[in-house]
Amino acid sequence: MVVKKLHEAGLRSEHAYTAAVVSIGLTVVSWMGSIKGETAGMDRADRWGIFVGEWAPTFFGLGLALAQYED
User: What's the pLDDT tens digit per position in 24-71?
Assistant: First the structure.
């Protein structure tokens, strides 16, 4: 149902795959930015990297669901 609504809204599997790859890059950027920009230390940087890093599997899964729906 959700996948059907997203597909009808114009979201395609390629969009979800692109978002997944971009989120992997954002993981590295957020981790490095947190290390350099905050005084909280490595623990906080690791948490930022993990938080953003969890988006990629979600987007890949959504891309797979949309790809199956598109077939």
Answer: 998 888 888 777 767 666 777 777 778 888 899 999 999 999 999 987
Q: DSSP secondary-structure letter at 10?
A: T
Number of domains in the chain: 1
26 falls within a domain: yes
Q: Which amino acid is at 15?
A: H
Q: Which domain holds residue 46?
A: 12-70
CA torsion angle 2 19 17 23 (round to 10):
-120
pTM here is: 0.80
24 in a structural domain: yes
DSSP state of 71: -
- Flag whether 4 is in a domain: no
The whole-angstrom separation of Cα 31 and Cα 33 is: 5
Asked whether residue 20 is domain-assigned, the answer is yes
